[in-house]
Amino acid sequence: MLHIEDLHAEIGGKEILHGITLHIEPGETHVLMGPNGSGKSTLLMCIMGIDAYTITKGSITFNGVDVTHLPIHERARLGMGIMFQRPPSIPGLKLGKMLNVISPNKKPEDVSEAVSRMNMEEFMGRDINLGFSGGEIKRSEILQMMIQDPHFIMLDEPESGVDLENIHLMGESIARLLQKNQRFVNRKNSGLVITHTGYILDYLDVDKGHVMINGEFKCHGNPREILKLIKEKGYHECLKCAKIP
Ligand SMILES: Nc1ncnc2c1ncn2[C@@H]1O[C@H](COP(=O)(O)OP(=O)(O)OP(=O)(O)O)[C@@H](O)[C@H]1O
């Protein structure tokens, strides 16, 4: 589904990603871990095609289409979706209107069902993210993704700032987006999830983990084993491990 080859990317004239190669097949969910500032969000931004980032080398292929230099709206149309770590407020644009812009042909009952599932009824008439709490922003982001219904789902720290009750709601909703209720062979959707805590892994049947340090992958493997190693011994252990296949 997603094939990234030797990706180099920079922002503000500084190279952040130094040759990332990553393959995610249909139905798979991968987890991205790494210390602060290592380039995890940058990778997601580059996959989604956010303007500020310049890809200087390498390629991104999505479902057979070379998207390396496509604009963000074309990638969204092809089925990519992202939940940002810190999405901006959009004064003047109501959340309810945004849902309509994302998917004008969605059945009203399906929209209502998603809004109700995320407990966002009273936010429909509010400007996007303006005055929303951290957890409300995350719920709003997931709701927008439910309406977009992308095939490739990128989540940047979905559990950060979310209380324990809402982590359950977020986890179950993300699992639905990733079609975790279906057998692997029947799943069409794939995902790439950034997490520091690993709480979200309790809800997702994830397939592979990757550790990024200073813009390079230093370790690939079982996400739970990697997380346990990081919790016990820190990221420097990943440098020693360096299990590059
Ligand atoms: N405009 C910019 N100019 C220069 N450096 C930048 C710019 N934007 C981001 N960076 C740097 O890029 C690096 C990677 O940032 P990124 O947000 O991808 O890290 P991250 O791994 O997602 O971190 P975190 O876990 O803290 O969210 C950081 O050192 C950051 O300061």
TrEMBL record:
Query: Which SUPFAM superfamilies did the record assign?
Result: P-loop containing nucleoside triphosphate hydrolases
What are the protein's UniProt keywords? Answer: ATP-binding, Nucleotide-binding
State if Coiled coil is listed as a keyword. Answer: no
* Keyword Lipid biosynthesis recorded: no
ABC transporter domain: from which residue to which, for each copy?
2-239
- Provide the transmembrane region boundaries: none
Q: Give the Gene Ontology MF terms in alphabetical order.
A: ATP binding; ATP hydrolysis activity
What name has this protein been given in UniProt?
Iron-regulated ABC transporter ATPase subunit SufC
Q: What is the lineage of its organism?
A: Archaea, Methanobacteriati, Methanobacteriota, Stenosarchaea group, Methanomicrobia
